[in-house]
Design goal:
113 residues; mainly alpha; 434 Repressor (Amino-terminal Domain); 2 domains
């Protein structure tokens, strides 16, 4: 979500301080949000979204925390799944597989960027 916030903020020509002030938070907190270190409350997200002319739901689509927590739980419970996930990560890191190719395979589409 943080990367998306930064993209929207920069596209709007707003500083961290501009958005932070509108959301009643500190600029360092917003910086941490953009870097993925912290996450805003629902009320704060609403104020950030208003300043960025976005909807909270649009921003929430970029929050993958719950999916990552579930993936961690599943890989811890299944050594074979853990090994498969490690292999996928290694293939992506080595350039043998792109994230778009992986997404296309998992989602059953043939489209890759």
């Amino acid at each position: 979500m943080g990367q998306r916030l930064r993209e929207l903020r920069e596209a709007a020509g707003l500083s961290l301080r501009d958005v932070a002030k509108a959301a009643n938070i500190s600029a360092p907190f917003l910086s941490d949000v953009e870097l993925g270190r912290r996450f805003p409350s629902q009320d704060t997200l609403v104020m950030i979204a208003q300043k960025l002319r976005a909807t909270p739901d649009e921003l929430k689509k970029h929050d993958y925390r719950s999916a990552l927590v579930e993936l961690k739980r599943l890989t811890e419970a299944s050594p074979s799944l853990g090994a498969a996930v490690r292999a996928i990560v290694e293939e992506i890191q080595s350039g043998k597989l792109t994230t778009d190719e992986l997404a296309a395979k998992l989602l059953g589409t043939n489209k890759t960027k």
